[in-house]
Specification:
Blueprint lengths: L31 E4 L5 E6 L5 H10 L2 H8 L8 H8 L6 E8 L2 E11 L16 E8 L8 H15 L4 E6 L4 H8 L4 E7 L2 E7 L4 H23 L4 E4 L8 H11 L6 E4 L12 E2 L11 E4 L3 H14 L3 E4 L9 H16 L3 E3 L5 E4 L6 E4 L7 E8 L2 H14 L3 E6 L8 H10 L5 E6 L5 H12 L4 E5 L20 H10 L3 E2 L3 H13 L7 E6 L2 H13 L3 E2 L3 E2 L6 H13 L5 E6 L7 H18 L3 E5 L29 H19 L13 H12 L4 E3 L2 H9 L8 E4 L2 H11 L3 E5 L13 E5 L2 H14 L3 H4 L1 E5 L5 E10 L3 E8 L2 H6 L3 E4 L4 H10 L17 H17 L3 E11 L4 E3 L2 E6 L17
Parallel strand pairs: 5-6, 9-10, 9-12, 10-11, 12-13, 13-14, 17-18, 17-19, 19-20, 20-21, 22-23, 22-24, 22-25, 25-26
Antiparallel strand pairs: 1-2, 2-3, 3-4, 4-5, 6-8, 7-8, 15-16, 15-18, 27-37, 28-31, 29-30, 29-31, 32-33, 32-35, 33-34, 35-36, 35-37
Helix pairs in contact: 6-11, 8-9, 11-12, 14-18, 15-18, 16-17, 19-20, 21-22, 25-26
């Protein structure tokens, strides 16, 4: 038996009071597809009365030892009363979740809410207990796959949702594996030993440790599930045809020509003689051996039956090339969802449908399970593309440039496996050093930024994101369009260390530099060439790209190979340069081959010196044969020199790499938690104000009270409706003051007489009140307030907003319409570190204004950064706060003043990037 089984102390199931008369609706949102430790998938859902027969069959498959560890006594079979008890739940005080493979129940977990005496209790009018007893039972042949860990994550999340704050579990000392499941979960726990039983108590409040454990398990499981698809030991092509040029025949031929060493099978209902030398079977079920990967190329209407056959045969993964799914409309989308549900229920992941396929150049695998006629050379770049048609062009480009790939995946409609799965896999893949992603949409942007930020610390991630300026998503992609402006998405990618480029060509420009040259230590660029004009163009390009070019070294068109050797040797040895650009045009007095040999020789020194060396070599693009360094297997190795057709291309690529290297050198930063924060009071304020409503705006007083719990104190503003009241307020707070309207359509509109600044006398204040009241429709319409005049400084805008795709985001820019009009507003994902907010303040184009532009005094940037960190902490603690606008925030040389604060509450949707492991709904 496996440890996966805490146990109640009684021999039989506990008996509780009758179920409440009106149980809540079936909690369908608790259903989830999950990835297990070995990379296989299963379906988790609440257990109900319709599972009675499945429960009996499951229990019959469980060993006597496992039953004993569960019930502390021999318990060979379940009675009818037991079955009713274990399949009938109220979804509040008694909950059961089951794990299913196919239609079979393979594991179950349940909790029963208990009182102080340990007896089962039900929710009543006088409150409820916050403790529950938890128990597991896992089929013996499923133990060791991480089943109990997944079940614990999900039952804990359900319990928290139902107001349960701790679990207790009685475990026999011999049940070490079950105790290990609890102790390794990362929750705060206690244990006690009494009467031969260990009682474990777990506090279900997530901790940093429990979250880290969950994310690490997610990473390992998703990486393994992807590895199963990319490293098959046997492959079947389902729909293999005999006629040359058909999809099935092309797939089989490409697979055979790729050098795949494992068994290959063809599936065709007609069977008959071998195709391309490969044995043919009428169905996958008829294949005598195991099949790791099935490539499916049958009409869309037949794919569902093929998936079921593959599941019965134990196939580990599907690559569905067939079209006719979500890209065709609602009927095709439902067909696609059925396919994914069927595959996952049988432990399979799906690449596609409507995809090009997958490739792996590892000599021990060497599989071309795709429609691409070209197998790229082996290399250290992993590539993910969503478009099948574009995938062929991408692979052609890698071949033409001489860039080697480790693996390639075309996901098509991306119904299951996505770019996030590939990030999980490539992060630890020893064969991959650089990650390339061509994304047409983002299925889970929050998870993408979290993963990309982690991966980018180790390996560069280069992204081309389509639809920069268009709305919507491509046909076949079941995901929402991004609502953020494109420059905001750029900000978030920069925060994650992602290199975003606008075109596929530029993606490869950057990739060939990252794959074969070291990261630079700075932005100082030496330029060596035999053309003065091209040298100056290169210098201009460097300056435009934000690099620091040194004076170009012009060797003239009569330069010899030896001249290049000496010049390159000098700049590589110099402490004043961090990177080198070589510009080489057809020479007059020496051969190109001689100069190429020198450049290749100097590249070895460049690697040793840690300085990237790039070239504009006779307008070549990629890795010219003359500039390659080859490893013992004849594969381009680090130190190969990438070449570009023009200096501007080389400099653009270099500038992206310089920025990435600078990001990676910076510390990741820390999430700051301020000790003066009163989160409990803030939560109470939010609960009281939001109540049962879906959304609510706070009054200025309510906003000030809530923000004050986080150390953010807006400057007081007093509402006035008469001249005398205006003067009284000014005298109380002291002159000079500001008189302004808080009417939404007139806020901060000096041009519409919505604000009067620096009013230093009673007479001036009275005149301003009369004039503004008259122009704005009377005191009631004008909605005027008096506020003390802030010290002069730089007016900024600080905000917190909730985006459906990325979640809570910090916003920063200078106050006023110009920032919005020009898009000069930067964003960062919450939670933000101290390094994140430092970057955020400096990310806007107008940032020099904060640091003493044109002789003006610099402002207290540290105070702005602290304000942003406090907002970040608020957003983490209070997800119901979905909008905060602090505008303007006037920053001076010593501190800042928040002059206006608006706060809005609403109920954000459930997060899909954190919480118990789940693959999300089939798309």
């Amino acid at each position: 038996m496996d440890p996966t089984q805490p146990t109640p102390p009684s021999a039989g199931p506990p008996v509780g009071p009758a179920a409440p008369p009106e149980p809540p609706a079936f909690p369908q949102h608790w259903e989830a597809d999950v990835v297990l430790r070995d990379g296989a998938t299963a379906h988790l859902r609440p257990v109900g009365p319709h599972d009675a027969d499945r429960l009996v069959e499951f229990y019959a498959r469980v060993s006597d030892e496992s039953k004993y560890l569960r019930f502390f006594t021999p318990y060979p079979r379940l009675s009818a009363r037991d079955v009713r008890h274990f399949t009938n739940h109220d979804w509040i005080d008694r909950v059961g979740l089951g794990l299913f493979v196919g239609d079979a129940l393979v594991a179950i977990v349940r909790y029963d809410r208990i009182g102080p005496d340990g007896r089962a209790v039900r929710t009543g009018p006088h409150g409820r207990s916050s403790t529950a007893e938890v128990a597991f039972l896992v089929q013996d042949d499923q133990q060791g796959r991480g089943v109990a860990s997944v079940l614990l994550e999900h039952i804990a999340a359900v319990a928290r949702e139902r107001g349960i704050r701790r679990f207790v579990a009685d475990v026999l000392p011999s049940n070490r594996r079950m105790m290990k499941v609890f102790t390794e979960a990362g929750y705060t726990q206690q244990s006690a030993f009494e009467d031969g039983v260990v009682r474990l108590t777990l506090d279900l409040e997530p901790t940093d440790t429990s979250t880290a454990v969950m994310l690490a398990r997610e990473h390992r499981a998703e990486a393994r599930s992807t590895a199963r698809l990319l490293n098959p030991r046997s492959v079947a092509v389902i729909g293999a045809g005999r006629r040359e040029g058909t999809v099935g025949n092309t797939l089989l031929r490409n697979l055979a020509e790729s050098g795949f060493a494992g068994p290959v099978y063809a599936v065709n209902p007609a069977a008959g003689d071998p195709i391309e030398g490969v044995p043919v079977y009428p169905t996958v079920v008829d294949i005598p051996g195991e099949v790791d990967l099935a490539i499916v190329a049958v009409p869309a209407r037949a794919v569902q039956q093929v998936a079921q056959d593959c599941g019965r045969h134990g196939v580990r993964g599907l690559v569905v090339v067939s079209s006719g799914f979500a890209e065709t409309g609602p009927e095709g989308r439902e067909r696609q969802r059925r396919l994914v549900r069927t595959a996952r229920s049988h432990g399979m992941r799906v690449i596609g449908p409507n995809c090009l396929g997958v490739l792996n150049t590892d000599p021990e695998v060497s599989v071309n399970a795709s429609l691409s006629p070209r197998m790229p050379r082996r290399g250290r770049v992993g590539m993910f593309a969503q478009s099948g048609a574009l995938g062929i062009a991408i692979l052609e480009s890698t071949v033409n440039r001489g860039i080697g790939l480790s693996t390639f995946v075309s996901a098509g409609n991306r119904a299951d496996v996505s770019g996030n799965d590939l990030l999980q896999y490539w992060e630890d893949d020893p064969a991959t050093d650089v990650v390339l992603l061509h994304l047409e949409s983002l299925g889970n942007p929050r998870k993408f930024t979290r993963l990309a930020r982690r991966v980018s610390r180790r390996k560069p991630v280069v992204v081309v994101k389509s639809l920069r300026h268009a709305e919507g998503v491509p046909l076949g992609h079941a995901t929402r369009a991004l609502s953020l402006p494109d420059q905001a998405v750029d900000s978030l990618f920069r925060q994650a260390g992602v290199i975003r480029v606008p075109t596929v060509a530029e993606m490869f420009d950057v990739a060939q530099l990252l794959a074969y040259q070291p990261l630079p230590a700075g932005d100082r660029v030496a330029i060596v060439g035999n053309s003065d004009s091209l040298g100056l163009l290169t210098q201009d390009a460097c300056t435009s790209a934000g690099l620091d070019p040194l004076r170009p070294i012009d060797l003239t068109t009569s330069a010899t190979a030896e001249d290049f050797r000496k010049a390159l040797g000098d700049v590589l040895a110099s402490p004043d340069s961090d990177a080198v650009v070589v510009v080489f045009i057809p020479p007059l007095t020496t051969s190109g081959q001689e100069v190429a040999s020198v450049i290749a020789e100097m590249a070895e020194r460049a690697v040793t010196a840690g300085k990237p060396l790039v070239a504009t070599y006779l307008a070549h693009e990629g890795l010219p044969d003359q500039l390659r360094r080859l490893d013992p297997d004849g594969v381009p190795a680090p130190g190969s020199v990438p070449s570009y057709p023009a200096p501007e291309n080389a400099v653009r690529a270099l500038s992206e790499v310089v920025r990435y290297a600078a990001w990676r050198r910076r510390p990741a930063g820390e999430v700051v938690e301020f000790e003066d924060v009163d989160a409990d009071t803030a939560r109470g304020l939010v609960r009281a104000r939001l109540g049962a409503a879906d959304a609510a705006g706070l009054s200025p007083a309510e906003a000030a009270e809530l923000l004050g719990c986080y150390g953010i104190h807006p400057s007081p503003a007093v509402r006035v409706d008469s001249e005398d009241a205006t003067v009284a307020a000014a005298e109380q707070m002291g002159y000079p003051v500001v008189l302004k309207t808080i009417a939404e359509h007139l806020r901060h509109r000096v041009d519409l007489d919505g604000v009067r600044l620096d009013l230093g006398t009673e007479a001036g204040l009275r005149r301003a009140f009369r004039r503004m009241s008259t122009r704005l429709g009377g005191p009631d319409q004008a909605r005027l307030v008096v506020q003390r005049m802030a010290p002069r400084g730089v007016a900024t805008m600080v905000g917190l907003t909730y985006d459906e795709s990325f979640g809570a985001l910090l916003r920063f820019g200078l106050a006023g319409p110009a920032s919005e009009l020009l898009g000069d507003v930067a964003h960062r994902v919450v939670p933000a570190t101290d390094q994140d907010v430092a970057d955020l303040v400096r990310d806007i184009r107008a940032a020099p204004v904060l640091f003493g532009y044109r002789g003006a005094p610099p402002v207290d940037v540290g105070a702005l950064e602290e304000l942003l960190l406090r907002l970040s902490q608020l957003a983490e603690d209070l997800p119901q706060v979905t909008s905060v606008v602090l505008d303007p925030v006037v920053a001076t040389g010593e501190g800042l003043t928040v002059l206006d604060a608006r706060v809005r509450l609403s109920r954000p949707p459930l997060r899909t990037d954190l919480g118990p492991r789940s693959m999300g709904n089939p798309r």
